[in-house]
Amino acid sequence: MTLASNEPKNEPKNEPKAESGLSIQPASEPKVWTDAEFMALPQDGHRYELVNGELIDMGNSGMEHGEIGSFLGGSLSLYVRTHKLGRVCDSSTAFAMKNGNRRSPDVSFVAKDRLQGLRRLPKGFFQGAPDLAVEVLSPSNTVEEIHEKIVEYFENETRLVWVIHPDEQYVLVYHSPSPDRLLRLQDSLEGESVVPGFSLAVAELFEELDF
To answer: How many Cβ atoms sit within 10 Å of the Cβ of residue 2?
Structure first.
């Protein structure tokens, strides 16, 4: 007769198993993009932003969105150059945020005091956010992503933000991450101390075709 041993048997432990045919891989670190790599992205007609190490395809804009941005950017640029206040850029221009993100407002203005000492504009990204950032909402935009962008703008020296809502035909004005003014068709966009003397009727942004 053999006595049973009191020592514990070497039974297999209940460890999590990967599904058949699958291997568990460690989470990969987000890629750290250099300015050169970001600028070398293919010119495929798409706009990209870099957010938390991830390349975000901003897609293509509809005609209404593009025309509003073009009209406002052109009006602002003409005024700014005439009065030697700084420079205005379009939606293809990316700005380098402190956290490593690269953001591209639909229209942006950088005041002359932040360009002092330069004979020409940088070929690379401007370090920091523009003094004035303009976003024209698209159907694909979410409240969360727009709010995140606005927060970053104000963390990086932006002083004024205009968010244009084409469907509802109004503009929200920001001096901080929360809006403090709502402008309707009878109101005017004012450059305030950021773009002194600039004024544009909100109705002009949403003007109907009359030809």
So the answer is: 4
Q: What pTM was computed for the model?
A: 0.77
Rounded Cα distance between 67 and 210, Å, is 15
The label of the residue with tokens 């009006």 reads 75
What burial class does residue 18 get, using C-beta atoms within 10 Å of its C-beta: 0-12 exposed, 13-18 middle, 19+ buried?
A: exposed
Q: Are 124 and 97 in contact (CB under 8 A)?
A: no
Instruction: Give CA separation, 102 vs 20, 84, 147, 192, 207, in Å.
Output: 41, 27, 15, 27, 32
Residues 107 and 69 sit within 8 Å (Cβ to Cβ): yes
Task: Report the top-level CATH class of 62-205.
Answer: alpha beta
Consecutive sets of 10 residues in the chain, 211 residues long: mean pLDDT of each?
46 47 49 59 61 64 93 99 98 91 95 94 92 94 93 98 98 98 99 99 96 92
Q: Is the dihedral of CA 60, 159, 181, 196 positive or negative?
A: negative
